[in-house]
Amino acid sequence: MRAMPRQAPARCLQLRSHDDLKADSSKFSTIELQRRIPMSLLNQLATALSTGSVKIIDLTHTLEERTPIIPLPAPNAQQLPFRLEEISRFDERGPDWYWNNIHCGEHTGTHFDAPAHWISGRHYEDGSTDKIPVKRFIAPACVIDVSDRVHEDYLTTVEDIERWEAEHGRIPAGSWALIRTGWSSRNYSDQFLNVREDGGHWPGNHPDVAKFLARERDVIGVGTEPVGTDSGQASTFAEPLPCHYYMHGSNKFGLSSLANLHLLPPTGALLITPPLKIKNGSGSPCRVLALVEC
Ligand SMILES: [Zn+2]
């Protein structure tokens, strides 16, 4: 039978590595060890969350009818904007309950892009939202801040990534590369999509960055603050929509319309990003959370 977890101490706990715990264990008897190391890793995490030494940052914008959706030029089909349709609200349609139907596309608001979203990723057997191994929905994040140089057509460059790595170290394989542009402060305004006659104008990633992050750094995906992971003008590039093409072509993911990236450290955050388990889904709105040590 498992011992019940002890009550959390008042002080903030430091999360300790498995090696640290093992090193300690060689010094003490089993009983002494249970006294000194009473909690499993998950109990330590639960305690750290309750004491606030690990915080949860919500990287998600609220879904509502004014949520911007990506505008595609004709003759491409459009997805539905988000809409709530009330079924009942404590009335003759349902006296004791409130509930809604929701209408939206998979790629609405803060959302997850699966490899199956793109022609380059359609051959992956585990590339749709229902088939991606769930362990891939929890991964560390690197936050690359380009907000001091961004403009409406800015493309993050490989030099930006290398400059960040010179300060913070090489992006570990399996990490999210989150590009902080500050663009989320425009959400729900016309300046978010920033559409003119020639289409949308929002920042994105240079084609070389998509290749570099997918192939040289083996990231798990790229996350951005604008409406998509590619820039507003990326459909006009010689290699159109390169972030989608190269990331999904390498069985990597995308996150778009992220909020609150300014609350994350450059390294050390752990992202939780499960999309809805839609059969053969290409993505879904996603409540993106980040665990951060304080
Ligand atoms: Zn998308």
Structure, described:
20% of the residues lie in helices and 22% in strands. It has 294 residues and is of the alpha/beta class. Strands 1-13-11-5-7-9-10-4-12 form a nine-stranded mixed β-sheet. The protein has two domains: 18-51, no CATH class; 111-293, Putative cyclase (Glucose Oxidase, domain 1), CATH 3.50.30.50. Zinc ion binds at residues 107, 111, 113, 228, 256, 283.
Give the ordered list of helices and strands.
HHHEEEEEEHEHEHEHEEEE
How large a portion of the residues is in β-strands, by DSSP E? 15-25%
Classified by CATH, the class of the largest domain is Alpha Beta
Number of helices: 7
Helix content: 10-25%
Average per-residue pLDDT, rounded, comes to 91
Quote the CATH topology of the largest domain.
Glucose Oxidase, domain 1
The termini sit apart by 34 Å
Relevant terms:
20% helix, 9-stranded mixed beta sheet
Task: Summarize the structure in short.
The chain has seven helices and 13 strands. The protein has 294 residues and is α/β, with parallel strands linked by helices. The strands form three sheets. The protein has a nine-stranded mixed beta sheet. Strands 2-3 form a two-stranded antiparallel ribbon.
